[in-house]
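Translate sequence into structure tokens.
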Amino acid sequence: MSSQIHHIHQQLMNKEITCTSLVQEKLDGLKQNTNNTVNTLLDTMALDLAAKVDAKIANGETIGLLEGIPFGIKDVYMLQGTYTTASSDLLKNYKSAYTATAIQKLLDAGAIPLVKENCDSFGHGSSSENTIFGAVKNAINPDLVGGGSSGGSAVNVAKDYTVFSIGGDTGGSVRQPAGYNNVYGLKPTYGRISRYGLMAYASSTDCVGPIAKSIEDIRIVLNVMSGKDIKDQTSYACAEISQEAISSSETIKTVGYFKNFIETDAIDTKIKSDFLETIEKIKAKGIQVKALDFFESETLVSTYYTLAMAETASNLSRLDGTNYGNRIESDNLKETYAVTRSENFSEETKRRIVGGNQVLSQGFSDEIYLKGLALRDNISENFENDFNEVDIIISPVTPSTPPKIGDSLKNPHAMYLSDAYTVGFSLGQLPTLTIPQGTTTGLQITAAKHNDELVLKFANFLKDTI
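Result follows.
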């Protein structure tokens, strides 16, 4: 089974390479890269950790599978002593006082962090252009966006600057950039990985997600980060997913797809034809394919953004320059708060805070917010019914190809609609994996809650089928 992690592990154990030389090579690539993927380079920390791995190997000690493997971190995760900016002016000088649980588990396994990666500010965007560090450029065509909000993470993996990266997925922020850059990106079942130490965007859908170049590497990283955390009450205990468990797809008999995602003028003709061709290839393997009814894309996007904006308005209310962030003094305390937030938040972040405050305000909350919650329940119920009929649901990742840099900033509405095929699975809190096959921007594979193993299993099947 293809795996950079296994390959590098063997090279280290066989003394074909040193960990220091490997890390230095990756750091050099990151320093020279022109895709705007780097917010902070963790060179001193990385080289110190690499030297310790080399010393263990020199002493004849066995190292763990992830020990010495270089990885990247989206710049919304706490890593003690490092800048955690969320690609924003407000936090550009903020240093983490602690480390996120998911990142700590990787450090405990011996993985080596190289870089805090560029992203949309506070995760607000689908293009990684809403950032003080400059727009992330697509790994395949630098004139196009890298995708968002985990654009820097996806591009670094695609360009081999990191072996894997840790993104954050709220409404598609791992899956969409993975699709734009032809790599794998997983949004696990909500709660499988602790969110402690991840800057909250929308708490009810935020997920920690790995990005890598192979299914096996996704599996390895997922296993290390998963599990119950007393610091996150939404997290839960779960069994490891073995390599053997995902090597056979015999249990998968039926696959569904949402016909309204395909039977629409909004979808790119090439993505549509590629998807329909993929369905035929799946049928040819003896698997039954069913067309399913689902909510219209506009309903999904409206529901998601109603709830996400409400939650981000609440979550970001603490950022006023008093305890966190770049404070701008004014004539009085109220004015200081206003100027600090106005000057330091991006236009997109301000748009979402204003929208969220309106959704939650008296006179609107019953009409808009509560209706959004009811729709989310309906969406989850729809999924439960669907998974009584099919084992897996597949869909395109996006209705269109990556836009040119600058286009999304001119048309926020179009940017929101680019999430049309990802947000529904977020609202359902379902495990969903982008694979770099099936259409020009990849394919999403989704299973029922807690069936992350089934998603990886079907991804392995499709790897050799389409």
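Note: The first strand starts at residue 38 and ends at 41.
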